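User: Assemble these into one structure.

Assistant: Restating your components, then the assembled model:
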Amino acid sequence: MKYMLLIYAGSADAEGCEPQDWMDYEKAMRDAGVLVGGHSLADLTTATTVRVDQAGERNVTDGPFAETREVLGGYDVIDVPNLDVALDWAARCPGARGGGSVVVRPIADFGDFAG
Amino acid sequence: MGESDAGAEDSQARPLVGSAGAAPASAEAAPSIEAAFREERGRLLAALVHRFGDLDLAEEVASEAVEAALTHWPVDGVPRSPGAWLLTTARRKAVDRLRRDTAYAARLAILQVEADRADPSPPADADGDLPDERLQLFFTCAHPALPAEDRGALTLRCLAGLTTAEVARAFLIPTATMAQRIVRVKRKIRQARIPFRVPGPDELSERLPGVLQVLYSLFTEGYAASSGQTLQRLDIAEEALRLTRILHRLLPGEREVAGLLALLLSTHARRDARTGGDGEIRLLDEQDRSRWDRAMIEEGRALVVTALTGGPPGPYGVQAAIAALHAEAEDVISTDWPQIVALYDVLLRLTPSPVVALNRAVAVAMRDGPEAGLTLLATLADDPRLRDYSPYPTARGDLLCRLDRFAEAATAYRDALALAHTEPERAHLRRRLTSAEHRCRGSHRIEP
């Protein structure tokens, strides 16, 4: 069962958010054989949003609107047996500390219906 | 009563009509079948969930097994081991279903492999006894990933064996709404793959309070409204008590489970004395203590000892100890108030909350007099969490009455009336208000 861990940034200077902590975390996931993939996202100021309206008109704007403090900073996809194990990995993520949070979402599996 | 879904509801009547030849036997057997099923349902469901890892499938085949029982038992007699009969029948039906539905089979085959890997020993159901897998169902129903407001409903549905309609009645919401909520919460369990498992020893301290919270909320849900007109909800309190007993049997070494059970027993022991003939509220000092359930109080007291022995106490153990002190006192005056205040001090450290502080203030007033209580209440006056909490002005009114400050007491009761939610509470407050106003006028008349 695959889960995506959506990592929302807390304050950058929080304890446990050193680059080394992130590297340790990734290594732990690789060693356990659960890491499917993941990326950190570049700074929010580099983001661009595209919308296409009903007439097919493209509308490009700067950034997503970051009025909330919840900013998506990266994601990991892991493959583990169930939600409890996924939550354990999410809790170990440095991004879950220092005011940050990790949202755990199962990745839809349509294989059931394909037989 | 005990069926798991709407489809099974009419099955109660059907076999009685269908097997005319066995009519006397069926009429006689029906209640015992009902009782057997009610008792076995949570356990049956848990065993099926353990085996197949799918709550919906488990519920469906459990219902079908009961339907089969209602057809066969009135004719053939109730089997020696009804639980095992139900489990075997349900498993056979599940296998039939899996053969019909290959997509289902593929999914369950994977689940089954995982389940076997996690627990290599097969459930010990071969010798006729139904295995007890209910503990994992307790933890699934109270899983922190589920919406808090749905955990109690799911527990009543899966472990207490109530129908969706009964659960809806318990929470005073329409059946259709409850059905939607249960469908939604079961979908999350399936799609997010919330496991059916008992947390390991290292996780237990983190997860057990959630389970206890569900049971305690269910109990208070039923208990707070024991107005006499809504007997239905007293049933919920009893169901919560029954489930807590089961949890205690499954986790005999967990002291907070013993504490919760003791608390529920000591509280429930007063159920008959809590209301008067017209369903009006009777407070502790007005209750006829001969109507308290002595057996329950004794059972609770023994459990308090377990809850408080062998380590630092937990909040349920402390609350149970307070309830036990009330229960063993002859009357309000001779209650061991110093000890109760000391226990509230402990409770306040464990669970700092303004409601606990309020209860402590009332106990201090009993120990040291109403002035001392009022002084403590004044320190809570600005707490926003008590702003809409009617027991706060009620307590003030009661203490002011004891100081013959009836005009101020009347004001406090009026504040409380504006905040009270249930009719029995409002009636009770109106009674107090009238009395305070009456005595207020009385005292004025004496003055020149």
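Chain A has one domain: 2-108.
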